[in-house]
Write a structure and sequence with these properties.
By secondary structure, the chain is of the alpha+beta class. The chain is built from ten helices and four strands, in the order H-H-H-H-H-H-H-H-E-H-E-E-H-E.
């Protein structure tokens, strides 16, 4: 129950940030958006319809479709996310608590601000298992019913909506909208994948036992052996897999190559690491390091 309450709260917070970006940055600076949000921006421009109202109305038929394809929790979180987004879209505009942020024709700054805040909001929503409704529901249905990638469906729908948005935006504003969308995607991925970056290291060496012992004794890092098979000599190989922090990489390479200068080492990004040494039981830090 505590976890569910925390997730619902964070979804609401993400919706508040995303709505703030749409209402107070995208609208005054004439930037468009994709999906349902892009349609609500057009309805506001042509008919002066509040985005909060149009968001909930456009999502009602999508809820009926989602009911047949989503489990109970997914549907509840989707309805909650859509309701929160609609509320905050109405709230930011109606309350005048914060004035619209007009960057006075500085479209580059507008695109960066809108993309960053929208990515922060949407990334928070998705990180805590929510959605903002709209094209997310259609993408989920397409994936479950027809096996089509949800990313492809969202991209296709966004392209259609952005194309229609040219009916009230010029090419310059549209290009800056695309820049904002690119920044949004990058920020959203960053929020979903986690701010902490570790390094995963694969080590192939005939001296794997010596290397493993030194890693254990000098770095106090756990490691795992994979059973490999050499492609040239067709012999059995032991592959060491260890996850370390980025600042430990130089010391790790020093250990490896001092034992086996011919060792094969592959280093990859690890966006999140859970377990001892990362999320619990970290090594005590000295005053120097």
């Amino acid at each position: 129950m505590k976890r569910n309450i925390r997730e619902l709260f964070m979804i609401a917070l993400g919706c508040a940030i995303y709505a703030f970006s749409l209402d107070l940055i995208s609208v005054p600076n004439k930037l468009a958006d994709g999906g349902i949000s892009g349609i609500t921006l057009m309805l506001r421009h042509f008919f002066n319809i509040n985005m909060g109202v149009s968001t909930i109305v456009l999502n009602l038929p999508l809820f009926l479709l989602g009911y047949h394809f989503m489990n109970k929790k997914q549907l509840i979180y989707t309805i909650w996310g859509t309701a929160c987004l609609s509320f905050f879209l109405y709230f930011w505009k109606a309350s005048n608590l914060i004035p619209e942020i007009d960057f006075h024709n500085d479209l580059f700054l507008s695109a960066i601000s809108a993309g960053t805040l929208s990515g922060l909001g949407l990334g928070t929503i998705f990180r805590f298992k929510g959605t903002s409704g709209g094209t997310d529901i259609l993408a989920k249905i397409a994936q479950l019913k027809f096996g089509i990638s949800s990313g492809k469906v969202i991209l296709m729908l966004d392209v259609v909506v952005l194309g229609i948005s040219l009916s009230y935006l010029d090419a310059t504003h549209m290009m800056y909208t695309i820049l904002a969308s690119y920044i949004l995607a990058k920020v959203m991925d960053f929020i979903q994948e986690g701010a902490y970056t570790a390094k995963g290291v694969l080590i192939i060496s005939d001296d794997f036992e010596k290397i493993s012992k030194q890693i254990d004794e000098k770095m106090e890092r756990g490691l795992t052996y994979f059973q490999g098979y050499g492609g040239y000599k067709m012999d059995d190989k032991h592959v060491i897999y260890v996850v370390v922090s980025p600042r430990e990489i130089p010391f790790l390479k020093e250990i490896i190559f001092s034992i086996d200068p011919n060792a094969f080492v592959s280093i990859m990004e690890v966006h999140e690491a859970y377990g001892e040494g990362f999320t619990y039981g970290p090594k005590p830090k000295t005053k120097l390091f």
